[in-house]
Specification:
Length: 70
């Protein structure tokens, strides 16, 4: 399942990022909603992207927009 909740365990250049939906600051070292999107490139490499959200509401709004192609 691509939805995650917790502290980000990957590498980051900064402790804070903007919520993908509203732009509010998200502290990567504090538990928060995330969405992990994995795809396979043309050469067969798995590419993973993690999107960060400040709240469950922002995650759900973003998912609805994504489903409807907005």
């Amino acid at each position: 399942m691509p939805e995650l909740y917790g502290e980000y365990e990957g590498d980051a250049e900064s402790q804070y990022v903007g919520c993908l939906n509203c732009g509010d600051a998200v502290d990567l070292f504090e538990p928060h909603p995330m969405f992990r999107d994995e795809s396979v490139s043309e050469v067969g490499d798995v590419t993973a992207r993690t999107y960060h959200f400040c709240s469950d509401g922002c995650l759900q709004t973003w998912k609805k927009k994504r489903e409807y192609g907005e």
